[in-house]
């Protein structure tokens, strides 16, 4: 099982952290026989927080680092690919996963946001996209769940 993650460079809210942690834990229960990979973009903020949560529940972690090191977190990965520009890297994360979990800093879609761009890309590629909003509410395919 391959899970993609995208989130704000400013990090997740407390509510988002709780929900993402519960999602990760539920995935380990749902797929106990499979290795679960988390794919993320190795940026400071939400990527780093998700990385630590994923490690705590035993996920393997695949890194998709950006070519620009200024916001890179330099996490320790089980597997890592070469750095790419942000948009191409985000596409690679989406193509690598079955489920995309997103933790944007805004409640509504923004045009100039890497997180929202990745969400749109996930929808375009028909991935299951779970958007965890700042208050912890979760939307799948635009519907509150």
Provide a concise account of the structure shown:
The chain has 145 residues and is an alpha/beta fold.
Keywords:
145 residues, single chain, Rossmann fold, 4 helices, 21% strand, 8 strands, 34% helix, alpha/beta
Number of helices: 4
CATH topology (level 3) name: Rossmann fold
Kindly, what is the distance between the CA atoms of the first and last residues, rounded to a whole number of angstroms? Answer: 22 Å
- Percent of residues in β-strands: 15-25%
Strands in their spatial order, largest beta sheet: 4-3-2-1-5-6-7-8
Largest sheet: 8 strands, mixed
Oligomer category: single chain
Overall structural domain count: 1
CATH architecture grouping: 3-Layer(aba) Sandwich
- Along the chain, the helix and strand elements come as EHEHEEHEHEEE
Helix content: 25-40%
Which overall shape is indicated by the principal axes computed on the Cα atoms?
globular
Low-confidence stretches: none
Structure description:
The chain has helices at residues 14-30, 46-56, 86-96, 114-124; strands at residues 2-7, 37-40, 60-63, 79-80, 99-103, 128-132, 138-140, 143-144. By secondary structure, the protein is α/β, with parallel strands linked by helices. The chain has a single domain (2-144), classed as Rossmann fold. An 8-stranded mixed sheet has the order 4-3-2-1-5-6-7-8, with helices on both faces. The radius of gyration is 14 Å and the shape is globular. It starts with a strand and ends with a strand. The mean pLDDT is 94.
């Amino acid at each position: 099982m391959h899970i993609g993650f995208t989130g704000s460079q400013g990090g997740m809210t407390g509510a988002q952290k709780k929900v993402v942690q519960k999602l990760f834990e539920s995935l380990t229960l749902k797929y106990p026989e499979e290795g679960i990979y988390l794919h993320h973009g190795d940026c400071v903020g939400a990527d780093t927080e998700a990385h630590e949560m994923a490690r705590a529940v035993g996920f393997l972690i695949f890194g998709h680092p950006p070519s620009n090191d200024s916001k890179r977190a330099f996490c320790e990965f089980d597997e890592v690919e070469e750095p790419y520009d942000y948009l191409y890297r985000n596409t690679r994360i989406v193509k690598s996963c079955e489920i995309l979990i997103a933790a944007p800093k805004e409640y509504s879609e923004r045009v100039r946001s890497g997180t929202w761009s990745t969400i749109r890309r996930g929808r375009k590629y028909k991935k299951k996209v779970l958007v965890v909003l700042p208050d912890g509410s979760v939307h799948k395919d635009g519907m509150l769940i």
